[in-house]
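Task card 7
Instruction: Convert sequence to structure tokens.
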Amino acid sequence: MTDQTSGASSSEGAPSLFFNRTLSTLNAAGSIWLLGLVVLITADAMGRTFFHAPIEGVNEMIELSLVGIVFLQLADATRKGRLTRSDGCFNLLSRRFPFPSRMLGIFFEFCGIVFMAIILWGSVPLLIESFEEGYFVGNMGLFTAPVWPVKLVIVIGCTATLLQFLVFAVRYANNTCVHEDAIGSQKK
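Output:
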């Protein structure tokens, strides 16, 4: 069965543990980035209010940061079953008809794989182009920030999420998948 804290099967070993720790690290990086963003916004607001001197580029940093934070945390949220979804009917089906629900679970995870692959297919060329062309946000002379690091985070986040959907699909195929938010009645 699934480990309640990591989403990993205890029999999967070191590769699964490494992957789960990687996803947790990406999530932690997103949280730290968010904390830095809060500090930046607070400093900008205080600078505007008390010193009539805003910090240049805060709007651009917020623009880039929100996208980066989402993609850093997406795979771990998927792993822990924290994405918004309605699975009441699916849970009922899985209790009464295990095999069809496994097939449906594989289909759902496959849809996630396809969706992440489509995002990757569109994002990789944008990453390459933004790096090669030196795209940036901001105004020359005031504040500029390169766009490619956030494009790289999008690619990393999509890849990690795609792999997580693949892990879930394999677990459904092996009849070992239990999403964390669907295990309330099955906890030991």
